[in-house]
């Protein structure tokens, strides 16, 4: 029995709950529960778009997702006695969906979840230049496994984990985030997908922040899209039940929050909506290591011990990629490009069995693939590898002299064309014509905040 509980009413939106969480990072967002070291918390979490995505065979919802909404975070949880410079120890006791059911509910996590490919103009992803339109796959949960009517021949066990976990930033750290990210946005403010997302007052949910402070804080608060020094949207599939995470503490009480739960995910969450997204619950306990950031030289990012490993696969098919562009241009040790090529290599391979490229991409986003940087020093080529577990397929995918198995007649994947998107639908750092937000970006980019690296000690180039 947990010492504290935080539950959500499935019939109401996230911002209309009795106790409201938040979807931005800011040190002034008040905590919802005080927790003592050693105590446990059971808390529910809404999926990242708060019920916008439906369990149907239409991808129009993926095409038009409201990008100002994510992520719906449960918290902050104030940890009594935690001080800046400490390490917050979070033990994940259990993570799971709201339910597994033969009669799925309305919300993702109530017996089902989803994976999406965002349109390049509306969110994008790891291969956005190759996938301009929106696609969706629905997954059903049963017996701890996921299957999809849109992706035949595939099933795998859950590796439930929170995509987002983190502590609140200090005012100085928040200012640093806003300066460095706004400088990046200002270099190409209308680019899509965006280089970064600056503070977005529209759609900000700030818990119980006083009404008088809402305008100021919504213009300062950082969106939850990227991982940062506090943790944030790390999307690490191995942070399952049994994990122990050590978070840097930047404010009194640490103010820990979590959200963006996934039933399963491949390394990289490569479609951006690449996990099996769901609402669910997390049970966790907390402790403190006083002055742990100094003792363990850990201020730039969390450290973690992986949890229960989940399904144990013994057979893999591995795809390599090199740092060479589609046009044949050599890039020097570009590990990101190398991994993109490994993903494309695997997608092409899966099409020989009858999957479309979009179906293959959806599988690789959701299934427990592993990404490895195999060589990052052998100039000029970086070598990245993608490990695909063969046991998730109900047929043999390994090359053979008899030729590939075929999955049969094509199964339609929900699709929505990006041609229907207007100028106002384009997701960029600053929308065209939004002079107010562009002024905010320029203001933040030129702020007095002192930029700093994430390493604990000084590192000098020779």
From TrEMBL:
Entries under InterPro entries matching the protein: FmdA_AmdA, FormamaseFmdA
Gene3D superfamilies (alphabetical): Acetamidase/Formamidase-like domains
SUPFAM superfamilies: Acetamidase/Formamidase-like
GO molecular function terms attached to this record: hydrolase activity, acting on carbon-nitrogen (but not peptide) bonds, in linear amides
NCBIfam families, alphabetized: FormamaseFmdA (NF045496)
PANTHER family: FORMAMIDASE C869.04-RELATED (PTHR31891:SF1)
Protein name: Formamidase
Highest classification ranks of the organism: Bacteria, Bacillati, Actinomycetota, Actinomycetes, Mycobacteriales
């Amino acid at each position: 029995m947990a010492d504290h509980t935080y539950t959500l009413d499935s019939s109401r939106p996230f911002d209309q709950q009795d106790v409201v969480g938040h979807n931005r990072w800011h040190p002034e967002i008040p905590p919802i529960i005080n927790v003592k070291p050693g105590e446990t918390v059971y808390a529910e979490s809404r999926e990242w778009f708060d019920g916008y995505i439906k369990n149907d065979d239409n991808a129009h919802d993926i095409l038009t997702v409201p990008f100002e909404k994510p992520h719906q975070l449960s918290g902050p949880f104030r940890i009594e006695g935690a001080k800046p410079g400490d390490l917050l120890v979070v033990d994940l006791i259990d993570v799971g969906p709201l339910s597994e059911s033969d009669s799925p509910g309305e919300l993702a996590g109530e017996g089902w979840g989803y994976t999406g490919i965002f349109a390049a103009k509306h969110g994008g992803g790891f291969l956005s230049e190759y996938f301009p339109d929106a696609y969706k796959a629905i997954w059903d949960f049963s017996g701890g496994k996921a299957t999809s009517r849109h992706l035949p021949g595939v099933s795998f066990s859950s590796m439930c984990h929170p995509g987002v976990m983190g502590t609140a930033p200090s005012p100085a750290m928040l200012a640093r985030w806003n300066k460095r990210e706004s400088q990046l946005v200002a270099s190409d403010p209308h680019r899509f997908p965006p280089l970064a997302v600056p503070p977005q007052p529209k759609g900000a949910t700030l818990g119980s922040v006083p009404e008088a402070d809402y305008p100021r804080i919504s213009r300062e608060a950082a969106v939850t899209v990227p991982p940062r020094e506090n943790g944030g949207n790390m999307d690490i599939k191995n942070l399952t039940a049994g994990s122990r995470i050590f978070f840097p503490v930047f404010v009194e009480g640490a103010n820990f929050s979590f959200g963006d739960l996934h039933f399963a995910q491949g390394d990289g969450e490569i479609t951006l909506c690449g996990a099996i997204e769901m609402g669910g619950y997390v049970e966790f306990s907390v402790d403190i290591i006083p002055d742990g950031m100094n003792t363990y030289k850990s201020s730039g990012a969390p450290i973690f011990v992986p949890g229960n490993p989940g399904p144990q696969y013994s057979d893999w098919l591995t795809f390599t990629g090199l740092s060479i562009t589609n046009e044949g241009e050599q890039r020097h040790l570009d590990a990101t490009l190398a991994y993109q090529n490994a993903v494309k290599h695997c997608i092409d391979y899966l099409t020989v069995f009858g999957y479309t490229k979009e179906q293959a991409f959806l599988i690789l986003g959701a299934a427990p693939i592993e990404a490895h940087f195999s060589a990052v020093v052998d100039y000029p080529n970086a070598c990245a590898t993608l490990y695909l577990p063969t046991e998730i397929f109900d047929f043999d995918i390994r090359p053979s002299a008899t030729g590939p198995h075929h999955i049969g007649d094509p199964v339609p994947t929900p699709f929505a064309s990006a041609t229907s998107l207007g100028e106002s639908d384009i997701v960029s750092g600053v929308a065209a014509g939004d002079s107010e937000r562009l002024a905010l970006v320029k203001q933040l980019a030129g702020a007095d905040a002192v930029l700093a690296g994430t390493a604990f000690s000084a590192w000098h180039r020779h």
